[in-house]
Amino acid sequence: MPGTMTLDALKEAVSRGEIDTVLVASIDMQGRLMGKRFHAAFFVNGGYKETHCCNYLLAVDMEMTTVPGYKTAGWEQGYGDYVMKPDLATLRPLPWLPGTALCLADLLDHHTHEEVSVSPRAILKRQVARARAMGFDPMMATELEFYIFENAYENLRDQGFANLKPISAYNEDYHIFQTTKEEALMRDVRNHLYGAGIPIENTKGEADSGQHEVNYRYSDALDTADNHVIVKQGVKEIAHAKGKSVTFMAKYDHRKAGSSSHVHQSLWTLDGKPAFYDATDEHGMSATMKHFLAGQLAHAQEITAFLAPYVNSYKRFCVGLFAPTKAVWSADNRTAGFRVCGVHTKAVRVECRIPGSDVNPYLCCAALLAAGLAGIENKLELEPEMKGDMYAARDAREIPKTLRAAADQLIGSKMLRAAFGDDVVEHYNHAAQWEISETDRVVTDFELQRLLERA
C-alpha cells in the first residue's frame, strides 16, 4: 500500500532531512493514540526497539482521571511502567504533519514482556489468533461517520461548547453540490490519509447537516482497527489545521442523526477462499456464516458494552434515524442490527450496525469476533430472517437501552469470560461502571434549563 514504509526507508528519509519526528503511540481504553514524539534520529538509531509509559494509561477515563479500583494499576501498586513495543509493520509518514511519521506500539508487561491482557490491541490479536487456529482469517471494515463544525476546537472550549455551527445547513446525504463546498477539507482528508497508507475508497455527505462518512478498504481485523484509529486522529488533525472541528460522538444533539461505525465482517480460509459463501443457499450463506451470525445474535446483548461504551452511545439508538434498536438479522435491511450484505455473491458478509463512531475498534471487533467464533464452535442454528420494519417488530431481541443494562450483560457473560478472560471482563466492566457513576453525578445543562426556575 502506498504510504507505509520500512525502517530502512525511514532511515533514508531521516538522512535526507524529510522526516525529523516519529510519533510512537499505543491505544488506550477509549481508542485514542497515546504516546511520545521522538526525534527521528534517535528512533532509527535504536529507539524503535522499545520505550516506556505509565501503566495508568489503561486505568483512566476520558478526562485522564486516575480511576480507583482497577486491579492492573493504582496508587497502591505505585503506577509503574508498561513497555511500549513499536510494531514496525504500522510505520508510515503522516502527510498532514510536516516531517512526521507514526508507529503504533503494543503494550507489554514491564517485568515479563508479555502483552498486557487488558490492552485493546492485545485483546483483538488474541481473537484473531483464535480464528486462525480454527482455519479462518477474519476480514473486517469499519465505516466512520462524523460531524464537521465551522468552530475551531479552541473557540468551542472558550464558549463552553455552545453555538456549534455545522459546516452545512441541511441534510447532505449523497449531495455532490454541498460536499463540493467542503472539498477544501475533505480532499485533504482523502489524499493525506491515502498518503499515510490508509486505503481510502471515498467520502460522502451523510444523513444530517454537516455530517460526513469516510470509507476505506476492508482488511484483516487488526489492520482495520489500526486504520480506524489513524483515520480518526487524521480527520481531527486535518480539520484543526483548517480552523474547523469534528466530533465522533455517537450523538452530539438529540435532534440530529447519530454517527455510526458499522462493522462489515467475513471469514476467509487460510488459502484465501471466502468461507461465508455457498452458491446453493437462498442468500448465498454458508453453514459457517450462519453459525457465525447465530453466535453474534445469541450474544449480542452481552457484547453491546464493547460496541456502545458510553452513556451517550445509547442515545443514538432511536426509531427512524437509521440506528438500530433490535438485535436481529435481515438481508439488505438497514433497520436491523445485523444486516446481511452482498447476498448471492462471494462478497456476502455481516454488517453489524450497532456500533457508533465513538467505539474503540479493537474492543468492538474483538467482541464481535468472539461471539461469532463461539457460534461456529457450538454450531448454533441461525434463527429465521426477520423482514420489514424492525423498529415496529414486537417481541424481537432488543439492543440494551442503557450502558447500565449492557454492563449487567457484560459482567455475567460466560462467553466473554471464556474468550477474553475474567481480568478483561472485570476491567472493562469497571470502566463502564465508572462512566455510569460519573454521568449520574454531574449536573447537566439540560437539568439546569429544565429545573432551575420551575422545580
UniProtKB/TrEMBL annotation:
Domain GS catalytic: 120-455
Protein origin, superkingdom: Bacteria
Keywords tagged on the record: Ligase
Listed cofactors: Mg(2+)
Annotated SMART domains: Gln-synt_C
Family of the protein in this entry: Belongs to the glutamine synthetase family.
Record protein name field: Glutamine synthetase
Organism name: Paragemmobacter ruber
